[in-house]
Amino acid sequence: MIKIEGKISYLDSIRGLAAFSVFLHHFLLAFYSAYYNNDVNTLHLHGWEISYGQSLFSVITNGHFAVNIFFVLSGFVLSKKYFLTNNFNTLVSAAQRRYLRLYIPVAFTLILSFAIMHLHIFYNIPASKISKSFWLDGMWSFTDSLKNLIGCLTYRTMFLNDSMFDTSMWTISIELFGSAFIFALLALTHNTKSRIIIMILLLLFFYFTEDQYYSDFIFGISLNYVGRSGIWLNKYLSNFTAFILLIIGLILGAFPSNNVITHTFISNFPGSKFVGGWYHNIGAYFLVLSFVIAPFLQRLIDLRFFRFLGYISFSLYLLHPLIIGSFSSFIFLKLYHSCGYNYSVAIVFILTTCFCLYISWLMTKYIDIPSTGFSKYVYDRWIKKM
């Protein structure tokens, strides 16, 4: 039987790779945006970027798919301790600590973005004139930044998915509400035998209301039942099933985020009417499920560098748009006239990757990890005793 006890390091690896995929997605949007919008007026690689964006390989940089993986992982990890202990108090503790744990890194990133704006070291606009990137051109051009900062710090980012200071932050309110949804669902079905039926009904509700993001959290919760199933005692069956699920998950994950499927591999995909807009949700679930049921996949991905990416994943996810808009754009502008477009972008990519990893490590060490400890301290010191 598959063990899901204790800290699951391979899940950290998956989360880290997903965060790096979002970084790659945004870097391509900044310098090769035709891969996403198929606009021939923004080509820099003679159409290769469009061919890549329409291929199965685009799953590597499909940021929307990576976000769905985040949510499935959250559903699994946030509910795992409760399933292992069946202790109602674990839900109360986790729910009361969740907001502060998310808010501290988010608030730091918002303040950092505000500071970069006021120091005038965002160079995304002049860089976008050369790269022709709609993504670069559309950020950090608003006025009343202090008023907007206060609004984002107090309620707009955490509750209304306002991402004006950082394009990655549109997911924060979904993560917050999704976490609350997990804890509420488990609490309301505590010690009942109808939880699975309720989860299925909720999935149907999200399917027909096209509110599929919250389905990811239910998919994640359901992974806790996988380790209890005797069918996975057969190693060969679990490995074969996992391989098939992984392949299907990656194929579904390559579905274009812009929903333009003309001339893509998926234009005649069987069952497309049934799947609807759930390609990435189902693909993310199949991908994570394949690792849960197959120890050989767990060992394959449980590498030190991948675990490091998992360790810095939240910081990397929050910081990389700011770095691309400032550091990367500045270096690109300095190199472009002497090195040409593609050579400049190659150099910028190497430097940006190294810089992102280092800065994300610093933020994780001094902001993200302490925020977890601080939220626990606040809970133990004040909330728990109330």
How are the SSEs placed, and which strands pair?
Layout: H1 9-31, H2 34-37, H3 48-53, H4 63-85, H5 88-118, H6 124-131, H7 134-137, H8 145-160, H9 172-188, H10 195-209, H11 213-222, H12 235-253, H13 272-275, H14 279-293, H15 295-301, H16 304-311, H17 313-339, H18 341-383
What are the defining features of this structure?
386 residues, single chain, mainly alpha, 18 helices
What is the string of helix and strand elements?
Answer: HHHHHHHHHHHHHHHHHH
The biggest sheet, with number of strands, parallel, antiparallel or mixed sense and barrel status, is: none
Helix tally equals 18
**Domain unit count:** 1
Count of distinct strands: 0
| Strand residue percentage | under 5%
Kindly state the percentage of residues in helix: over 70%
Tell me the Rg in angstroms.
21 Å
What is the overall shape?
Answer: globular
Distance between the termini: 41 Å
Structural class: mainly alpha
Low-confidence stretches: 1-6
Q: Determine the mean pLDDT.
A: 90
Describe the protein's architecture and organization:
Mean pLDDT is 90; it is low at 1-6. The chain is mostly helical and 386 residues long. α9 packs across α11. It has one domain. It is built from 18 helices and no strands.
Summarize the structure.
The chain is mostly helical and 386 residues long.
